[in-house]
Amino acid sequence: MSNITLEGPTFPAASGNTKSIVILLHGYGADGNDLIGLAPELAKFLPDTVFYAPNAPHPCEMSPFGRQWFSLASYDPEFLRRDADTMPAALKALAEGARENTASLAGFIGEVLAAHQLTAANLALVGFSQGTMMALQLGPRHGDKLAGIVGFSGALLGNDTLAGEIVSRPPVTLIHGSADPVVPIQASRMALTALKENGFDVTLHERPGLPHGIDGEGLTIAADFLKKHLS
């Protein structure tokens, strides 16, 4: 169990009656404030949902003000344009970084569930970029099945070991811009294939011409998915 306690901004349930939880996982070099701004828009569809946006546990190695879930010192976008069978050792190192940092996130999930007296079936993860990598690392290995995972502009790391580590299969929707230069869309295509092969209910929505970011249509797709699985 990690001794790191995650903290970050929150957005209360608009109705005042919390029935579900969404945890927003930010990308590399950002912090919880980067994604908590999505909460008011998502709350229009999810009035009984409280939103949490924890800051990643480590200071960012490349930014004096941002945070990181794990190091990206060895990251090269070209890694994710290659087939999973030829994934280089550096990309596998990223997978190990994600694995080593799931404990603090799992602990945070346990804390917020206890605080609201809810179960994992009432909680969804929404990640962006490195936050998606964390969501896809933790979700299938979480002892209690989560309500769902939304992954914007991310990747599934460690898919070569996934089959033997699955504990639960939450539904997943992936949303990715076709013009993303930071995390190429091939990463979500690879994730789609790997998750399907391992029995997950998973969809991929490609956003034409979108770079590394979240657009209005993608946010609507996410809101519809969350409304379905948190209702």
TrEMBL record:
The keyword Ribonucleoprotein does not apply. It comes from the Bacteria. This is Phospholipase. Keywords: Hydrolase. Pfam families: Abhydrolase_2. It comes from Thalassospira mesophila. Residues 16-229 form the Phospholipase/carboxylesterase/thioesterase domain. The lineage of its organism: Bacteria, Pseudomonadati, Pseudomonadota, Alphaproteobacteria, Rhodospirillales. Belongs to the AB hydrolase superfamily. AB hydrolase 2 family. One of its GO terms (molecular function) is hydrolase activity.
